[in-house]
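Hi F.,

I've been meaning to write this up properly since the lab meeting, where we talked about keeping a consistent format for the predictions we share between groups. The idea is simple: the sequence comes first, exactly as it goes in, then the structure tokens exactly as they come out, then a line or two of notes. No screenshots and no reformatting. I'm using this chain as the first example so we have something concrete to point to.
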Amino acid sequence: MTDYEQRMINVLISTHPGWRYEQRDLPGLPRWWAVRYEPLRPDQRRAGARDALGRTTLHRLARVLAKHDQILHMLRY
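Output, unedited:
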């Protein structure tokens, strides 16, 4: 992991603390993953929230986490 990637992970941890962040190098799958510590309620899943999010870059992962937070905010999570 590069210094930049570690700094990005640190920002994600402080901004989105309810997630565990993982790097996976598997062919055909996203490289960076955020996995929730706590499972979601059924109503949160119906609204589009997910227990795990994967993207090819940390920047894309940060963007999808922000959108995910909007979903939960609308449900007053």
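Notes:
The two ends are 33 Å apart (CA to CA).
The chain has a mean pLDDT of 91.

If this format works for you, I'll send the rest the same way.

G.
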